[in-house]
Design a protein that fits this description.
The protein is α/β, with parallel strands linked by helices. Helices cover 29% and strands 20% of the residues. The protein has 2 domains: 212 residues, Medium-chain alcohol dehydrogenases, catalytic domain (Quinone Oxidoreductase, Chain A, domain 1, Alpha-Beta Complex); 173 residues, NAD(P)-binding Rossmann-like Domain (Rossmann fold, 3-Layer(aba) Sandwich).
């Protein structure tokens, strides 16, 4: 089959690889019909290269049609249309039963001391072959694959794999009061969808912050009041505070996280890491951190006293200092984590009917064949040519 594989830093190719098969009784194999390109994939493209191996299949946002099931799979049949969450969970441990599927006791990576296994996401999360491929092996299929209606375009359901539950959790964790205010930092796919979810769930004011003009325009068409952070942090804080009675918003969602391509010294550090021996580079990323915390620091300054910061963007490393005095003094609540897809899917699925409440059907900016993966990654990292969300069509 054809699949998108990692071959080195900024080196993604479409190659022929062996077809997957059901290796365990609880496995399934799907024919992938749509698979998203996520901002997190860009972390593997460059920053997290030390945790990748040549030939790793990328991607973690798939949906498709069941082709084969193992002998222990009774709730799925060939021909069923399914979405596959980006994490692998068992469905019955304490963590899963409390809605924390990303912390699953039975699929976590003890060797790396990380949470539940993730498709296509490096040795940090199990080196599980990913979803940017013609076919995909689904682990623990009964507990993980989500059946969806046979009718309707893929775009109505594919985002249930990651984008929708990640944005939904970000808003729920933000704990926005009814009619309250929220600022969303970063208007990529997760930030844009978080704005839509916040409006749907009753936020009275939604502010969006992003330096990319196309992304601000896209959010503004959804009723979001948008701001350009390049005007300077002080001016940005002042403008948003003026619209919230001088206090700042009730909640801030940081949808930026670790930048896939940093600036200045951070950019130099990322490039330096990519040139180091693999074991040395991996240890540096784990213990030192090569990301910048500009968005998180802005969130801390911006949110009102007693407010909540919700982190949906992924950060890496240990050494970056946090302004603990400010966090404590302002009595800020801080919530974060990978999205627990099965926790939120029942709340989201009813919104994916013909009314398309969240506007998912026209959410993607690009539909690309697998053969166009190398160029799609390059364009997405550069944030040029109006590229916003790419969906691969195997």
């Amino acid at each position: 089959m054809k699949a998108v594989v990692w071959n080195g830093v900024r080196d993604v190719r479409t190659e022929t690889v062996p077809d997957p098969r059901a290796e365990e009784p609880d496995d399934a194999v799907i024919r992938v019909t749509s698979s998203g390109l996520c901002g997190s994939d860009l972390h593997l493209y460059e920053v997290l290269g030390p945790f990748m191996n040549p030939g790793d299949i990328l991607g973690h946002e798939p949906m498709g049609v069941v082709e084969e099931v193992g002998s222990a799979v009774t709730s799925l049949n060939p021909g069923d249309r399914v979405v596959v969450p980006f994490q692998v969970s068992c469905g019955h441990c304490l963590m899963c039963e409390t809605g924390l599927q990303t912390q699953c006791d039975n699929t976590k990576n003890d060797e790396q001391n990380t949470g539940a296994g993730l498709y296509g996401y490096s040795s940090l999360y199990g080196s599980i072959p990913g979803a940017q491929a013609e076919y995909m092996r689904v682990l623990r299929a009964e507990q993980n694959a989500i059946r969806v209606p046979r009718d309707g375009p893929d775009e109505r359901y594919v985002y249930l794999s990651d984008v929708l539950p990640t944005a939904w959790q970000a808003v729920r964790y933000a704990d926005i009061p009814e009619g309250g205010s929220v600022a969303v930092l970063g208007l990529g796919p997760i930030g844009q969808m978080a704005c839509r979810v916040a409006e749907h769930l009753g936020a009275g004011q939604v502010f969006g912050v992003d330096p990319v003009p196309d992304r601000r325009v896209r959010a503004a068409t959804q009723g979001v009041e948008v701001f350009d952070p390049s005007q300077g942090t002080d001016d940005l804080l002042q403008e948003i505070r003026e619209r919230t009675d001088g206090r700042g918003p009730d909640a801030v969602i940081d949808a930026v996280g670790m930048e896939a391509s940093g600036h200045g010294a951070v950019r130099l550090a990322q490039r330096a890491v990519s040139l180091m021996p693999k074991e040395t580079a991996a240890k540096l990323v784990e213990t030192a951190g090569i990301d910048r915390l500009a968005a998180l620091r802005t969130a801390i300054d911006l949110v009102r006293r007693g407010g909540t910061i919700s982190l949906s963007g992924v950060y890496g490393g240990m050494v970056d200092p946090l302004p603990m005095l400010t966090l404590f003094d302002k009595q800020i609540q801080l919530r974060m984590g990978q999205a627990n897809v099965h926790q939120w899917a029942p709340q989201i699925l009813p919104l994916l009917d013909e009314e398309d409440v969240l506007g998912v059907e026209d959410f993607a900016s690009d539909h690309v064949a697998l053969q166009g993966a190398s160029e799609a990654y390059r364009r997405f990292q550069a944030k040029k040519d109006g590229i916003f969300k790419t969906v691969f069509k195997p």
